[in-house]
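Escalation from tier 1.

The customer reports that the assembly of four entities below gives different structure tokens on two consecutive runs. Tier 1 could not reproduce it. I'm attaching the input and our single run for tier 2 to review.
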Amino acid sequence: MAGRSVAKAVTRADVARYAGVSSAVVSYVVNDGPKPVAASTAARVREAIDVLGYRPNINARALKLGTTGMLGLVVPDSSNPFFAEFALEIERVATERGLALLVASSNSDPELESRLIVDLAGRQVDGLIVSGTAGPPRPRAPGDRRLATPTVYIDSSLPVAGYHTIGSDSIGGAKLAVDHLVVDHGHASVALLIGSGARSSVDERESGWLEALRALDAQDGPVVRAPFTRAGGYRGGLRLLDLSPRPTAVFVSNDLQAIGLLRAAHEGGVRVPEDLAIVAYDGTQESEYCWPPLTSARQPVPTMAAAAVETVLDNPDAPSHQTFAIELVIRRSCGCGRPGRALGSEPSP
Amino acid sequence: MAGRSVAKAVTRADVARYAGVSSAVVSYVVNDGPKPVAASTAARVREAIDVLGYRPNINARALKLGTTGMLGLVVPDSSNPFFAEFALEIERVATERGLALLVASSNSDPELESRLIVDLAGRQVDGLIVSGTAGPPRPRAPGDRRLATPTVYIDSSLPVAGYHTIGSDSIGGAKLAVDHLVVDHGHASVALLIGSGARSSVDERESGWLEALRALDAQDGPVVRAPFTRAGGYRGGLRLLDLSPRPTAVFVSNDLQAIGLLRAAHEGGVRVPEDLAIVAYDGTQESEYCWPPLTSARQPVPTMAAAAVETVLDNPDAPSHQTFAIELVIRRSCGCGRPGRALGSEPSP
DNA sequence: CTGTTAGCGCTTTCAC
DNA sequence: GTGAAAGCGCTAACAG
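Tier 1 run:
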């Protein structure tokens, strides 16, 4: 059905004919090598290219070279601002390196996810970056057939044998959040509003929250589980606010949920941070512009994205693991600053 | 540099050898045609495929067929939730049709944008969907060389000669917004906070705003221009709130700006909607979860995305234009509902 | 039902 | 400095 309509593309042979040279020469001038070409010939070729409107067929090139100049990215949900920002950063560094980005969303469905991975691998992408819904894959069995495509799992705070993995230091991040609430703001205990995913293992944000509380001899507050979405945060928030006694402080596992919680609080007349202090996780742009602005444990997205691309491209063998420190961005929802006045009141551009 | 590490992939020839058939037969079973294959042979081939872990090389296939099974999408800013949602929808329908999506962000830079378009076209995508930062291209000159790739411009409320265009009915949408503010809420005039882009022509949202005001014999309020971002809305909002007399109602050209404006209002102690009624444009998810929830003129993103893909794939010739009606989603920021209580208080999932 | 084979557009070695 | 030709992995005539 397609293919029919693609107006007969002009090919390297057309250019060669028009310029009165061989197709090899066209190749030399297009790629600026590997052989030198006389200046005058080159000029003629370039003119032919211009006149004819020639565009090299990148796929043919890929076939010959065994390289596609494409990266694949699969995320659970690209409308989650965190993944959107991640994707944008990856795209930025890919573009810088002359690569294009093939994206796919698994919609948090492990089955779809693996189909997408297989599909992208079949498209011969030069590297695959995946944020697994089902968490990182299980360690590779000894005789396992490798996926030929170099792959890195992001969003994995622990190493997985046989794979490249990258993640933020969620344990450390959770601790930062809890410490701030307990030490700096004097809360006796901190609740947890956390995502309920398909992930098999315990979320490290939960471990960090617990560890921090223990280390401070503070009490762990109630735990509420809800989907990693605004709506999930809203519903989870409703339950959280219904608890008695109502928690005075909560650590929320991502910005989206915190925003949902904020809505629940507004509707219930619960003042943030006066009645309920909130620290979130991710530090997306959206967290800066809700009301009150969210204090959030920010993942260094640009750095992580750059590392992902680099790892998969420059280091395809030798599985590695990298963890990135997170930074607590202080705004108003934790209780810092003055009411009605956002901290750092000139928002970033 | 790349290519080296790609573990020698298993090819159709390997499978053929292993199964003791010709490569054509392998092709027949993989594609389920065009020739029939004996059941027993097919089984042998399938087993070989399995054992060897064979994956067809999609690029080779593309080269042969003149079709890549890829769509290209270029947007100004994929971290804008509106475009993120759009991209997600396009991806969804593309996946349904077995196509992959190549995305690129122009970062609102017209120069980058055209480079990206050329690059994607060179990658032989089967169709190109672009949301132009420079607006749709100028009408095609008679002798103009066509871009061979079928292309549709989204976000273009007016037709452009020689191109496929798709857009929401921004004039109608703006009127809906203004009418609601003036007729239903009794505001004597409505201000405008609108994006300042690279677009050459006047934004139709501005025209709609003006027309609606005229039609109602109402007064046009002040116009403030600022970038299409949260920060832009914030800064524009600061200026707007500084005006005297301060407007009592404002139509904002996208959700992002409205969210920035909301922050400015919160900081300035201006109550929304009591002191300032707001109606935004786009109707992204984020508009549902800020506080107060935004009344917004919603673009039918899924419908538009489906139309874009269909147009570019099934209708590559015969330039067409499609406009989609927008729907005013009533929430709290316009003054509807009760204070502290969001309208439709059970948010969507 | 199965096999042979000619390319798709490109790069690159090897000759001139 | 330039050209001829092989071949990347795949499909689809065309023969058997």
